[in-house]
Amino acid sequence: MTRIGIYGGTFSPPHNGHLAAAKAFMEQMWLDFLFVIPAAVPPHKEVEQGISAAHRFRMAQLAFQGMEGVYVSDMELQRQGKSYTVDTLRELSGDDRRLFLLCGTDMMLTLDEWHEPEELFRLCYPVYARREKDAVLDAQIIQKIAHYQEKYGKIVRKIQMEPVEISSTMIRKKIANGEPVSNWIPPLVEQYIFDNHLYGSEREDGKQ
């Protein structure tokens, strides 16, 4: 049985928190492969205006290159319309495959609101990683996991890792404000952002 991980998101831009989560996901779920899948039109969030899918895909490629067993896929970018996770799971599923879906705390808490949640839980084993240290969420997380187990018959597993409190929103704001971001994103991604003047990054002539 091949163990395949699925890690979706806007990746606008991909950052070191994404890389840390992917690494822990692969190690702790004993994955044979991990598909990193930039979303085309995510149902749950808006993509930063002016940043094309092609840019986000290329940044993801640069961020994850060199990580063994990780493949950046454009399957959702090639698909027309909104990027429903359940459609991606259907595309990747097979009798000889076990699928694991990685999501953040916020997404994990709303899995039952996603498109076709029964099918989603049937096709994969959801896994979540904490990206915050908010203890207020602990009780809510426990309650939700119990609800999912009772309703869908699946235990949602947790990736054990120190929360990396980085967000793409924070990085975009820093770039737009001319603040350094080298500590937060891979060097190749940073270079790509500035070469292509993304997120209001400063051009060589000093103009925005």
Plain-language structure description:
By secondary structure, this protein is α/β, with parallel strands linked by helices. The chain has nine helices and six strands. It has a six-stranded parallel beta sheet with strand order 3-2-1-4-5-6, with helices on both faces. β1 (2-9), α1 and β2 form a beta-alpha-beta unit. The protein is globular.
* CATH topology-level fold name: Rossmann fold
Shape: globular
Overall number of domains: 1
User: Main sheet?
Assistant: 6 strands, parallel
% residues in beta strands: 15-25%
Number of extended strands? 6
Give the SSE order as H and E letters: EHEHEHHEHHEHEHH
pLDDT < 50 runs, ≥5 residues? 203-208
Q: Give the CATH architecture.
A: 3-Layer(aba) Sandwich
Give helix % range: 25-40%
Overview in brief:
With 208 residues, the chain is of the alpha/beta class. It is built from 9 helices and 6 strands; from the N terminus they run βαβαβααβααβαβαα. It has a 6-stranded parallel β-sheet with strand order 3-2-1-4-5-6, with helices on both faces.
Please give a handful of descriptors for the protein shown.
Rossmann fold, 9 helices, alpha/beta, six-stranded parallel β-sheet, disordered C terminus, single chain
Write the layout of secondary structure elements.
Layout: E1 2-9, H1 16-28, E2 33-38, H2 53-64, E3 70-72, H3 75-78, H4 85-92, E4 97-104, H5 105-108, H6 117-123, E5 124-129, H7 137-152, E6 157-158, H8 168-176, H9 187-195
Parallel strand pairs: 1-2, 1-4, 2-3, 4-5, 5-6
